[in-house]
Amino acid sequence: MEYEDFKKMYLDDLMVFYLGLELFGENGRDKIMQSTDEELNAAAGIKLDSLFTEKKIKGIAEAAKRFSEMKSVELLAYASRCGIQLEDKPIDEPEICPLCGGSLHYGAYEITDELRTQDWTCEECGATGKEAYRMIFDCHFHVRDPKGKLADR
Ligand SMILES: [Zn+2]
C-alpha cells in the first residue's frame, strides 16, 4: 500500500481504521492472508455485530486485510507519518528530569538525518543526560521556481 492510501484510510474513517488495525492484531498476518473475504467479514461481524452496519464491517475487514499485506516496518513508518502515537504517551517527558522531575538546562545539540539530540543538566539534582527527537519529514514549503517566483503549489 502507498502512504497516500494509508493516510486516506486513516483520515476517511478513524473508527474503521482502528478497528481494522485491531482485527489485524487479533488475527495476525498469516490467518488473514489465508482467509477468504467471507471468513474475514464473518470474523469482523462476530467481533462488532450489533454496533455496526454490514457496510462498515466489510470496511473494517478490508482494512485489516490491507494492513496484513504490509511489512511491519512499513506499517509503523506510515503510522508515524500520520502522527499516530504508538504508545499512549512517551515514557519520558521532554524538558523534565527523568530522575527528580526538575527543569533541565540544555547544552550542546547534535543533528543527524534521523535524530536531534541535546545534552542536558538538571537544574534541581544535577543529573545529566541527553534528549532525543526523531526527525520526520513534513512537507516542502516556500518553494521558488528558478526565476525566484514563489511556486503555485
Ligand atoms: Zn533532576
Describe this structure in words.
- This protein has 153 residues and is an alpha+beta fold.
- It has 2 domains: 3-81; 88-153, no CATH class.
- Helices cover 44% and strands 15% of the residues.
- The protein contains 6 helices and 3 strands, in the order H-H-H-H-H-H-E-E-E.
- The chain has a 3-stranded antiparallel beta sheet with strand order 1-2-3, with no helix packed on it.
- A hairpin with a 3-residue loop joins strand 1 (104-111) and strand 2.
- The longest helix has 15 residues, at 54-68.
- It is flat.
- It starts with a helix and ends in a 19-residue tail after the last strand.
- The mean pLDDT is 86.
- Zinc ion (ZN) binds at residues 97, 99-100, 102, 122, 124-125, 127.
- The site of zinc ion has 8 residues, from loops.
Overall number of strands: 3
Lateral strand order in the biggest sheet: 1-2-3
Number of domains: 2
Taken from the alpha-carbon principal axes, the silhouette is flat
Order of helices and strands: HHHHHHEEE
Number of helices: 6
**Residues in helix, %:** 40-55%
* Arithmetic mean pLDDT: 86
Distance between the termini: 25 Å
